[in-house]
Specification:
575 residues, alpha/beta, five-stranded mixed β-sheet, 13% strand
Length: 575
């Protein structure tokens, strides 16, 4: 080795390094700093609370100005770049640079997902800006999780089901009169009546978790029942729930839990449906699973569009904490900020940690190295919703349901051209034809069944002639489709599969996190190709293969499914 690297020359004297008392960068404006400190109060300034604190500023001031972002970075002892990159990643944060005007006090978001487009969302988007004027901002929004009441608009944080220009205009006027043009609080969010803590306990609720804590039930029994029931993850991936619990329970302590309620798949709204009606059944299932696996702390991640559900969970978690006569693990409720990609488990974990919601490369897997680097049990909300019934009624109760050789129950989120859209609890393996006739009241008058999406935006599109396939995990794979979270969108002869695929691809292009080139560039390129009057099918197939083979996560890997299905099953539309 060269002598100069061996230390044979005279040692270089060490020069003391001056440590800056604050991070290098813009100095915070004293007034802005005082405003941020007042909003944060005595709450922790931990790094993982960055998104929560950004929400406080956004909710209060209606935007995130540069001066407030600089102040927040100073207060949390973060680099300005860290704060800025997170604030600009999420759709629901309005970052306003110096010299730019703040957005109008009232924002109206019109859902442009497939179900809403079929129900007339484009007409709303064309008319509302002219009628509401420049004092109201009208934005196109991805799916807001209310597909059964399409078309949907959201005024501030208030959803408008079956939206019309008149309904939206009336709510905008009420909001402006009630709060004035310069303030941002919302009207009371209306949700269906739900079963509160007292009623839930009166009907036998929380007896199961108390039996667990008191030693009347052992951990092995709980996990074994989940395994024998055949319950699989109901967020879309379908991994066996009991096996996941067993894997995480074998990892070193401390172990954490992350509950995924970032229900962003267009066509899906089952989690919201159950949360709005029976939140404690989910919470007890969560506590039982956490106890069985030996979880030290629980994090619930709720999509930001579900403002009513957040109010319910905040209130009922408060009731649970104050009234429960048994010990609880620490439970944190975290708020998303508008990013479909955060439904992917590792992207959700990044967001809980206060970062951009970008999927992690695997391995290691979340069960081994997850939230804050600890082994993490990640479950969808509905998966936990069934834990109590499976434990009390036995695994055979759950597996006894089913049709056409399948076992279990499925909560189908049905929207589109049926008479009774909504969440329909039906046997696993039911066909789409059976689902429409037995649960959805048939097709709407004047509409003939034409096609369907069996698993939301990424689950592919099939024609009516293939309506006898059992709807369940693994049954659709050979057709280039999957059931996912059981979001079913029904198309009629008034619709076009080509239109549906184009709508879906625009969604994926908007929601790609941008981390990997195949997804970021591929979805945008696919949109341009699909907007042409005549599709370049060979190029679309080549592009789809690249996206499926090289994308980091399921978004890019599954995005080509609808376009490939159109080319395979609806050739007449491309002739």
């Amino acid at each position: 080795m060269n002598d100069r690297y061996r230390g044979n020359s005279q040692p270089i004297p060490l020069v003391p390094i001056k440590v800056r008392p604050t991070l290098k960068g813009r100095r915070p404006d004293p007034q802005a700093l005082a405003e941020v400190q007042a909003l944060l109060g005595n709450e922790s300034r931990r790094r993982d609370l960055l998104i929560e604190h950004l929400h406080k500023i956004q909710d209060h001031y209606g935007c995130l100005s540069d001066r407030h972002l600089v102040a927040l970075a100073h207060e949390m002892k973060l680099a300005m770049s860290e704060v800025y990159e997170v604030a600009t990643f999420y759709h629901h944060f309005d970052v306003v640079k110096d010299g730019e005007d703040a957005p109008p006090a009232i924002t109206v978001r019109v859902c442009e997902s497939l179900s809403c487009e079929m129900a007339g969302a484009n007409e709303l988007l064309a008319k509302l800006p002219q009628i509401l004027g420049k004092e109201v901002r009208v934005l196109r929004a991805p799916c807001v999780g209310r597909c059964e009441t399409a078309p949907v608009a959201v005024v501030g944080q208030n959803p408008v089901p079956h939206a019309t220009v008149e309904k939206v205009q009336k709510l905008v006027q009420e909001k402006a009169v009630k709060h004035g043009s310069g303030s941002h609080p919302d009207l009371k969010i209306i949700t269906p009546g739900h079963i509160g803590f007292d009623e839930y306990v009166k009907n036998g609720g929380y007896k199961l978790i108390k039996d667990c804590l008191e030693g009347h039930v052992d951990r092995e029994t709980v996990i074994a029942k989940m395994e024998h029931s055949g319950l699989r993850g109901l967020g879309g991936a379908g991994f066996p729930a009991g096996r996941k619990c067993r894997i995480v329970s074998s990892q070193p302590e401390p172990r954490l839990m992350a509950v995924n309620i970032d229900e962003g798949e267009p066509g899906t709204f089952k989690d919201r449906y159950y949360l709005e009606r029976d939140p404690h059944r989910f919470l007890e299932g969560m506590l039982v699973a956490a106890w069985a696996v030996g979880i030290a702390e629980v994090y619930i991640y709720l999509r930001d569009e579900y403002h009513g559900c957040r109010e319910i969970l905040q209130q009922e978690l408060k009731n649970l904490t104050e009234k429960a006569d048994f010990p609880l693990p620490p439970i944190q409720l975290r708020r998303g900020a508008g990013a479909y990609i955060c439904g992917e488990e590792s992207a959700m974990i990044e967001s809980i940690e206060g970062k951009r919601g970008e999927p992690r490369l695997r391995p290691p897997y979340v069960a081994e190295v997850g939230l804050f680097g600890r082994p993490t049990l990640e479950h969808n909300m509905e998966t936990l919703f069934w834990v109590r019934d499976i434990q009390e009624k036995g695994p055979e109760w759950f597996s006894s349901h089913g049709r056409h050789g399948r076992k279990g129950l499925r909560s189908f989120s049905v929207s589109g051209r049926v008479k009774k859209p909504g969440v329909h609890l039906a046997p696993a393996g039911i066909t789409i034809k059976e689902l429409i006739e037995e649960y959805c009241g048939g097709m709407q008058d004047g509409h003939t069944f034409y096609g369907y999406l069996p698993g939301g935006a990424s689950g592919g599109i099939l024609p009516a002639s293939m309506g006898d396939i059992p709807l369940d995990f693994d049954t659709l794979n050979e057709y280039g489709c999957f059931i996912g979270s059981a979001a079913v969108v029904v198309l009629s002869d008034k619709d076009s599969a080509k239109m549906a695929a184009r709508n879906i691809m625009r969604f994926f292009a908007d929601e790609s996190c941008g981390q990997c080139t195949p997804c970021r560039v591929g979805t945008a390129k696919a949109v341009k190709l699909m907007e042409a009057e005549k599709w370049d099918q060979e190029l679309l197939k080549e592009l789809s293969t690249a996206m499926m083979d090289a994308s980091i996560c399921g978004l890019g890997q599954a995005a080509p499914n609808p376009v490939l299905c159109v080319m395979k099953y609806f050739p007449n539309e491309l002739a």
